[in-house]
Amino acid sequence: MTRSRAISRRTSILRSLVRPALAVSTVVLAGVSVASAQAAPLLCVPPEAPMTVLPDTVLAEYRAEISAEFEEYFSAVSDYIACLDGERARVLDEARAATEAYSALLTTIPAARNSP
Prior knowledge:
By secondary structure, the protein is mainly α. It has one domain. About 75% of the residues lie in helices and about 0% in strands. The protein has 3 helices and no strands. It has helices at about 5-40, 55-60, 65-110. It is rod-shaped, with a radius of gyration of 29 Å. About 0% of the residues are buried.
């Protein structure tokens, strides 16, 4: 075998080994980023509704303060729903990226054949 054929053969073998390795490492790295994203704390914390189980005299006396608490609560509910919408969008983007990585895995690396 000539030297140029030997080099060409080695190059061909290396390419056949490197492509699947790159695909696997890409999938692994995508999995690492997904795993680290899953470890993040939950940022959307639901607000607590104001307490109204109080005597009527207390409710009457502190009506303005209790009304202000309800206004704050309704504002916090809006913020909470916006947070959930943001999380939903983030997770959908993450799922799209995982789908693309999985598709690349399926199209790049052939399935192993189980021969009897």
